[in-house]
């Protein structure tokens, strides 16, 4: 068996609108903490818009929308998400969250990645929308989120005034389709087929550990 110190990439497809993406983020963090050799895992956030047709003006709440989708089961599903969120230490409140377009939020996350702050910005975006009811398509909200996560205010304003990283968001979305990603959160670990990002941390740890295992060399 060979020794292998190469970095493995864990690509995380997620959307700010998705409460499961926040729950999955916490579970991935727990899984990483239990993974031997986790310093060789690089986490890369990828863009995926659940509702690209959404406008920029908040309307009905996510809880109300789920009531429309699931009928009598809507309230139970909302409560399940709230309960699972609390179990992971996040106070998701779908009675506050109001779906909006997340394209600019994804652009902001791409900017953050170029400054080594992708995880911090994604965390702050998820909390702003899912816990605080923030409008994550509003430039003022995005600027505040970016600055709180460590970005320069001027850079964020320049981003929002132009179309920087728009092509990167679209490239992520095209690649998602090519790879069979049809929902979020979804993980692609070391280029392997996509797997659900909301698995229990112990299962995620096993997947991560397996990806870090050296490949056998012919003749071993």
TrEMBL record:
Q: Which Gene3D superfamilies match?
A: Glutaredoxin
Identify the residues that the record assigns to the DSBA-like thioredoxin domain, covering every copy.
9-208
Coiled-coil ranges from the UniProt annotation? none
Q: Name one Pfam family in it.
A: DSBA
Q: Which InterPro entries match?
A: DSBA-like_thioredoxin_dom, Thioredoxin-like_sf
Q: What name does this protein carry?
A: DsbA family oxidoreductase
